[in-house]
Amino acid sequence: MAMYSETIPLHAIMICYPLQGHINPFTNLAIKLASKGFTITFVHTQHVHQLITKAQPEETIDDEVDIFSEARKSGLDIKYITISDGLPLEFDRDLNFIQYMESLIYDFPSVVDEFVGNLIDSDHSRSSTFLIADTFHSWPVRVSRKYNLVNVSFWTQPALVFTLYNHLDLLKENGHIPFRGDPEEIISCVPGVKLMKMKDFMSFFLDSDLSTIVHKIFFQAFEDVKKADLILYNTVEEFEHEILSALSQKQPGFAIGPLCATVLTNNRVSRSLWSESDCSHWLASMNPGSVLYVSFGSLAQLDEHVFVEIAQGLLLSKMNFLWALRPGIVKSENDLKSECAKLSDDSEGRGLIVPWCPQNDVLSHHAIGGFLTHCGWNSILESIWWRVPMICYPLLGDQLTNRKLVVDDWKIGINLSDGEIVSREEVAEKVKRLMSEKSSDGLRKEVQQVKKILDDAIAQKGSSQENIKSFVRELKAEMH
Ligand code: UDP
Prior knowledge:
Helix content: 40-55%
Number of helices: 20
Strand order of the largest sheet: 3-2-1-4-5-8-9
Oligomer: single chain
Radius of gyration: 22 Å
Structural class: alpha/beta
Number of strands: 17
Shape: globular
Bound molecules: uridine-5'-diphosphate
């Protein structure tokens, strides 16, 4: 194992998973650790680098863009490197998403292996070098063992989701997987997990076919993470105490979230895979708390009829809305450009539709009064951070499980639809309920309370601050 020396800073090689919901917390983690004196080598794939570069405003486009140059100017020691993901740069990853995911399992590991090997060979301070890789990767044990590095796994979703994936074998033994078809079936076999029903399980494991590439990613990743030395979770202990404490019986883990708070205290670092539209002028023209922000994140898709019902529901509600409608988000043969233009016209100035926006800036704006979200974990943490209550419409994966936390456990959001089908009337009713001060008073009070938990966690002596210290102690101990 690499040795720690007091005279050499801890050096993390950080290898991110190439999806937006992973890039954001990973970037924030790099900034957080660098601000605590770590040296960071931050690795993106060349493809991600290309997307981030293209997403820059016209005047700053530069192939040599180093996303951490501003952070370095403020004294942070972060080196930025790009490597291949195993596919040619011109390969269409959107069109061939399965092949892309396969390549991350089968081809990317040897690229990482070679990269880490070369880095270690050329790095004279290697004695304090260690690895931080996203839990979604399937290769960290192999690479860290080969180069004798402490292996830290970083989990970007709630600990609840982690523990469910981590106990897939137990869930199989207890007959929950494959799914038997009863959404009300209660799961009680996972340590620390209470009141969990199959309907709130991650969508991938509600399928009857468990042999797709997505299942392969989870099976392999969770075989691998069981052998990690340390785990970092982007959550807070007070949210998921029993689960985290059950997990820590098996492996040392540290809840150090919410990492979205890091965005506020540091220079801007480019991380967006799409160009961000500036919505500030439009928002400035709106009354405080009067705009509903709508986004379904970076990956999930909407069926065309759901898109139409949500759009019509927004119009019917007569509320103001800002919708970040990512290109390709709607599964449709039709060109939706004209639909979007019509939606914008029909809203008579009440609606603004953009492809992508700086979400934290939007959520922090005083004009925003609610968030219609797909329940991505980053979006939830950001919404709580800015004290914005939510309407939840989960679409896939962990979003179903995250919804339970927001609506059933913390009571800071409502469901978009109480049944299987989304109707424009129900959308309008829920939007009005969330946006009306009177009917959402309870939600707003709750979100203030939950936000306080986040504030306390990152305050001096708060749980996340203390957990970072414990992480550093354990890391050094692992190196001795
Ligand atoms: N995001 C953004 N602009 C948008 C939509 C999303 O910057 O128009 C960011 C958002 O702030 C969040 C991330 O993209 O940090 C999405 O992550 P999340 O976990 O919420 O969902 P995912 O995209 O992984 O489904």
